[in-house]
C-alpha cells in the first residue's frame, strides 16, 4: 500500500496529504494556537501561507511540521493535543 501524496483535488483548492486533506483558506495554528496565516496552496512538501499582513511575503511550513488537520485548521507540532482533528477545539 502506498502512502497518500500531495494530489490536488477540487480544482486546486484541496490537497490530500499524508496528514489529511488540506484546503485553501484553512487557518494554520502554531503549537500555542496562534494563527500564523491561512493556506494559499501546496507545492511539493511545502504548505504555502497566504499573506496576512500588508507587505509581508508569503511564507511556508513543511508538511512534516504538521501535527494534525481538523475541518477548518492545520495545527503544527508541539501542541501536545492528541485529540486535534477529532472534534477538539483548537
Give a brief description.
The chain is mostly beta strands and 90 residues long.
3D architecture notes:
It is a single chain. The protein has no helices and 9 strands. By secondary structure, the chain is mostly beta strands. The protein has a domain at 19-76: PRC-barrel domain (SH3 type barrels, Roll). The protein has a 6-stranded mixed β-sheet with strand order 7-6-5-4-9-8, with no helix packed on it. A hairpin with a 5-residue loop joins strand 4 (27-29) and strand 5. The radius of gyration is 13 Å and the shape is globular.
Beginning-to-end CA distance, first to last residue: 32 Å
Average pLDDT works out at 77
> Any idea of the CATH topology of the domain at 19-76?
SH3 type barrels
Estimated structural class: mainly beta
Task: Give the C-level CATH assignment of the domain at 19-76.
Answer: Mainly Beta
Name the CATH superfamily assignment of the domain at 19-76.
PRC-barrel domain
Q: What is the element string, with H for helices and E for strands?
A: EEEEEEEEE
Q: What sort of overall outline do the alpha carbons produce when their principal axes are compared?
A: globular
C-alpha Rg (nearest Å): 13 Å
Helix content: under 10%
Strand content: 35-45%
- Count of helical stretches: 0
Strand order of the largest sheet: 7-6-5-4-9-8
- State the low-pLDDT regions, or none: 82-90
Largest sheet: 6 strands, mixed
Number of strands: 9
Q: Mind telling me which CATH architecture of the domain at 19-76 this is?
A: Roll
Amino acid at each position: 500500500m502506498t502512502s497518500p501524496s500531495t494530489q490536488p483535488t477540487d480544482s486546486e483548492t484541496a490537497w490530500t496529504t499524508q496528514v489529511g486533506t488540506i484546503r485553501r483558506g484553512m487557518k494554520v495554528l502554531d503549537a500555542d494556537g496562534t494563527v500564523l496565516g491561512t493556506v494559499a496552496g501546496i507545492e511539493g512538501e511545502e504548505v504555502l501561507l497566504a499573506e496576512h499582513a500588508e507587505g509581508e511575503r508569503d511564507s511556508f511550513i513543511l508538511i512534516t511540521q504538521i501535527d494534525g488537520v481538523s475541518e477548518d485548521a492545520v495545527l503544527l507540532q508541539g501542541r501536545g493535543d492528541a485529540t486535534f482533528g477529532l472534534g477538539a477545539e483548537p
